[in-house]
Every structure is written in C-alpha cells, then in structure tokens.
Amino acid sequence: MLRYDSNPVDLNLWALAAVTESQPPTADWVGYKVIKDKLNINLKFTILPAGTDGETKLSVAAAGNSLPGITDGGTLDLFYKWVDQGLLNPVESLLPMMPERTR
C-alpha cells in the first residue's frame, strides 16, 4: 500500500519534445487529477524544446542547481557531468525494490 502524509508533493517533470510540434498537456488533463488523487502528487509537466535548445535549458538549470525532480532530457555527457557535480541523487538503495527491472 502506498503511504504518504496529507500534504501533496510538488514534482516537476521536464521532458524533451519528441517532435518540434509537441505541446504539454492542457491544465485540465485527466492525468493530473489521477496523479494527484492516486499518488498525492502535484505534477508540473514541462515540454522542453527538441534538440540543443532543450539541452541548453537543462544545462542552465543545472548551473543554477535547479534541475527538475525528473527529466528524460540531455545527453549522457550531461548526465555524467551532473553526477560528477553531485547534482543528481543516488538511487542505488532503491534498486533492490525493483528486482525484475534490475535483473
């Protein structure tokens, strides 16, 4: 059973656009309500520009120590740079919770 306190968690998710025409979901997207009701998370979903413009936005956020809670953007070079700079949280302790995925 999922447990949480009564205060919702604010979570920022940034994703690189798959195509230049990609737009974020509308404010009334049912997914926001489901995520809030089922997980007690206030999700803020941001679509980053495709290509280097999106990676630049991520780099600026990293330089300001203000990366979002979750992102799928950037290159592996950026990822390893952020690891070296201590900007990403370690997740090794979570791996035993996902034996099928980490096998």
What does this structure look like?
The protein has helices at residues 30-39, 52-63, 76-84, 99-102, and strands at 9-16, 41-48, 70-71. The chain has 103 residues and is of the alpha/beta class. The chain has a three-stranded parallel beta sheet.
- H and E order: EHEHEHH
Low-pLDDT residue intervals, each spanning 5 or more residues: none
Give the integer mean of the pLDDT values: 86
Q: Biggest sheet: strands, sense, closure?
A: 3 strands, parallel
The proportion of residues in beta strands is: 15-25%
Distance between the termini: 24 Å
Please give a quick description of this structure.
By secondary structure, the protein is an alpha/beta fold. It is built from four helices and three strands. Strand 1, helix 1 and strand 2 form a beta-alpha-beta unit.
Tag the structure with descriptive keywords.
103 residues, alpha/beta, three-stranded parallel sheet, 4 helices, 3 strands, 17% strand
Topology, pairings included?
Blueprint: E1 9-16, H1 30-39, E2 41-48, H2 52-63, E3 70-71, H3 76-84, H4 99-102
Parallel strand pairs: 1-2, 1-3
